[in-house]
Amino acid sequence: MTGTAPRNTAPDATELRRLTAELLAAHPPLETDRTVFLEARFDAGLAWVHYPEGLGGLGAPRTLQAVVDAELEAAGAPDNDPRRIGIGLGMAAPTILGFGTREQKERFLRPLWVGEEVWCQLFSEPGAGSDLAALGTRAVREGDDWVIDGQKVWTSSAHLARWAILIARTDPGVPKHRGITYFVCDMTDPGVEVRPLRQITGEAEFNEVFLTGVRIPDSHRLGEVGDGWRVAQTTLMNERVSIGGMRIPREGGMIGPVAKTWRERPELRTHDLHQRLLKLWVEAEVGRLTGERLRQQLVAGQPGPEGSGLKLGFARLNQEISGLEVELRGEEGLLYDDWTMRRPELVDFTGRDAGYRYLRSKGNSIEGGTSEVLLNIVAERVLGLPSEPRTDKDVAWKDLAR
Q1: Cα(292)–Cα(247) distance, rounded to whole angstroms?
Q2: Which residue has the higher pLDDT, 167 or 377?
Q3: How many angstroms separate the CA atoms of 164 and 127, rounded?
Q4: Is-catalytic flag, 239?
Q5: Distance separating alpha carbons of residues 34 and 385, to the nearest angstrom
Q6: If DSSP states are collapsed to H, E and C, what string results for the chain?
């Protein structure tokens, strides 16, 4: 990383354009190795401009990232393939930034952003999905290490990941939301076993992960011992924003293929389908603009529970749109292109056929927090409604019925 002196003031748009021009002059995109260019971009503070200097940023307002991105795109510069490393960018990075030590930030953020190291998320368990705080994976201290034993499930990209963000129970003698600690887990440890989970689409983008005697040094702990639930909230809030609030153009996402079919295939149209398409098109545009507004609000701080509402709407809308697309196509909508068992690097909603989109969207109301849980979050934290009665609030985890 560069060793330049800290700035007295945050750069403005003009300064960012100048710095971007300097980067392009020193590393012409058409003549520079992709990884070398991305590393140079990170070191110049142009990776995520709102991050601190020395960590890929310049302490600039988050909204100015668009200025840098536009200049680089116009110059034909490579990006870091954000869909492939979305868990690292959207979940691991903000958590490391918020709770990591200086050494952890310097070790993990650069290869994460460049895409040299893929990340996954070891949170959900067979008996702790919607009720994540009930997790039973144990972490026991042995000297300077923690020994981890347990099972995680629904782990996207575990078959590709070098690192994982992991929460485990370090104290079973306190209520379930306490006694949890947050770690960075080395996925190459011999005690980590990754098994594919084949989905209704035929693919296995998800995995189950078995942890047997996995040793994690205490230097890879994020936050204080027993404070993992609070740390995990940063991850979860960012996850929901990254899923439901992705930046897309008008008619991007699921609504795009349906609108394209409608325009190109007039023989498929009916009055009822027209009315339903109009309604969903408007809702998709409202969701897109709401996501843009939420990203602007992030300039003022960390994401809040509003991201849960956005992700909730994203799941419902995707399922309704994909259902309409299958119905619009009639018999064609029942076809499926390929049931081959694959372990893909990313989910491509718009690159496959209508049948794939219909089946894959069923998972949208489960992944990243079930819709039922998100409804509770919106009710309690956004609308201020009373929380549901909890009988386990003051009961030690080890005494809970399982």
Answers
A1: 7
A2: 167
A3: 20
A4: yes
A5: 50
A6: CCCCCCCCCCCCHHHHHHHHHHHHHHCCCCCCCHHHHHHHHHHCCCCCCCCCECCCECCCCHHHHHHHHHHHHHCCCCCCCCCCCHHHHHHHHHHHHHHCCHHHHHHHHHHHHHCCCCEEEECCECCECCCHHHCCCEEEEECCEEEEEEEECCCCCCCCCCEEEEEEECCCCCECCCCEEEEEEECCCCCEEEEEECCCCCCCCEEEEEEEEEEEEHHHEECCCCEHHHHHHHHHHHHHHHHHCCCCCCCCCCHHHHHHHHHHCHHHCCHHHHHHHHHHHHHHHHHHHHHHHHHHHHHHCCCCCHHHHHHHHHHHHHHHHHHHHHHHHHHHHHCCCCCCCCCCCCCCCCCCCHHHHHHHHHHHHCCCCCHHHHHHHHHHHHCCCCCCCCCCCCCEHHHCCC
Using CA atoms, how far apart are residues 203 and 341, in angstroms rounded to an integer?
5
pLDDT in tens, 111-134: 999 999 999 999 999 988 878 999
**Cβ contact 93:112 at 8 Å:** yes
Task: For residues 324-343, give the mean pLDDT.
Answer: 91
Q: Are strands 119-122 and 163-169 parallel, antiparallel or unpaired?
A: parallel
The closest of 293, 305, 172, 330 to 233, measured between CA atoms, is: 305
What's the rounded Cα separation, in Å, for the pair 188 and 118?
Answer: 12
Mean pLDDT, to the nearest integer, of 62-80? 94
């994540």: which residue's tokens?
132
pLDDT bin (cut points 50, 70, 90) of residue 1 is very low
Of the residues 71, 205, 208, 239, only one is catalytic, namely 239
pLDDT in tens, 156-170: 999 999 999 999 999
- The tokens for 274 are 């027209």
pTM of the full structure: 0.88
**CB atoms < 10 A from the CB of 178, how many?**
18
Q: Which amino acid is at 133?
A: A
Among 20, 3, 134, 131, CA closest to 71: 20
Report the distance separating Cα 333 and Cα 323, nearest Å.
9
* Residues forming beta bridges with residue 13, ordered by sequence position: none
Alpha-carbon distance of 321 to 376, in angstroms, equals 24
Cα–Cα distance list, 149 to 121, 129, 135, 224, 398 (Å): 16, 18, 12, 20, 16
